[in-house]
Write a structure and sequence with these properties.
The structure is a homodimer of 198-residue chains. Chain A folds into 2 domains: 36 residues; 133 residues, Nucleoside Triphosphate Pyrophosphohydrolase (Alpha-Beta Complex), CATH 3.90.79.10. Helix content of chain A is 16%, strand content 39%. Chain A is built from 3 helices and 11 strands; from the N terminus they run βββββββαββββαα. The longest helix of chain A has 13 residues. Chain A starts with 16 loop residues before the first strand and ends in a 13-residue tail after the last helix. The C terminus of chain A is likely disordered. The interface between A and B is large, with 70 and 70 residues.
């Protein structure tokens, strides 16, 4: 029997077919399309709004002292300050790991170390067409002065990995992509005085 | 010294002030606004696009056998099938736990058990103004026939909690809100033959 997690298996549910798409709004960092899909069995069509966005990257950067680098920004959607791991938009065909290193350096001045991809997930598959790549970079060090984007003001802080995870579970970190990054990072975190718990 | 996680403390970064907002698009399940904010120090204004949405709820439902209830749907943004925990939009002033119970019952037929709020997080605080409430319901049982919304076709599956977490970390579950729900659920999961590991 094929795995229920195999997307190519025969499904009891239907894979709708995209028919056409019309741009509704261009909002700089994203665009809104009205897309028509056809149901393969019932031969009906329906319109759904889709947010078109480039892929994103988020970075769990761990210093040589075992601390995670966090950033705090004012967020215009939530109208609140938010502690998060560094991240941003991937430029065109930029490699996710290169993009993660670039965002980390721009936002915090940290660099170096060994990078790997933790996973590639969907920020909102119901409505958005993009993915977010989650990157782990171990043994980063402070390498450069900060280079914020226009309208960016970013505070940064390094805290022990276990404290970051505890604060996240206690509700002090609320950005879902950071929480997902910590979920995927958790098996890799180094216990004090022991080998990596992979 | 106040905690860096206290949003009311004095910040090195600035809390922008919302000035005005104009509706750009109405897309049924969300709306797009162009919002003007003023920087309190520099006295400049800037426009940012904000997606207005009602709050969402996602539910980690654990059966009396210790299995998590998952649903699989075709997702029009990602154009793929996606295994997730049940969830949806909160209706107006509906209580998050009541909304979670309603969505769980509609999508899977499961109900009953003991519910608690795991946390309330931001799906996308940079651009969206809504929160997602993550609810844990323990000891659910199958109670009703399915009642799908229009255009919904939902497959469901119960798997042991540890298997769900392992599959999520292996990349077989990719929806960030489900991954965040599992992150917040993890300390509550019951080990076989032991007390809850809270």
């Amino acid at each position: 029997m094929s795995s229920p997690f195999d997307p190519t298996r025969e499904h009891a549910i239907s894979r709708w077919q995209p028919v056409s798409s019309e741009r509704v709004a261009d909002c700089r960092v994203f665009r809104v399309d009205r897309a028509q899909f056809r149901h393969p069995g019932r031969q009906v069509t329906a319109d759904f709004y889709v947010i078109d966005s480039s892929d994103w990257v988020n970075v769990v950067a761990v210093t040589t002292a075992g601390e995670i680098v966090l950033v705090n920004q004012y967020r215009f959607g939530a109208r609140e300050f938010s502690w998060e791991v560094p991240g941003g938009l991937i430029d065109g065909a930029e490699d996710p790991i290169a993009a993660g290193r670039r965002e980390l350096l721009e936002e915090t001045g940290f660099g170096g170390g060994e990078a790997r991809l933790l996973g590639s997930i969907w920020p909102n598959p119901a409505v958005q067409n993009n993915r977010c790549h989650l990157v782990l970079i171990e043994n980063v060090t402070r390498m450069a002065e900060l280079a914020w984007d226009e309208h960016e003001e970013i505070e940064s802080l390094c805290l022990p990995a276990d404290e970051v995870i505890a604060r996240a579970r206690a509700g002090e970190i609320r950005h879902t992509l950071t929480l997902t990054a910590l979920f995927l990072f958790e098996p890799f975190r180094r216990k004090a005085g022991s080998a990596p718990a992979v």
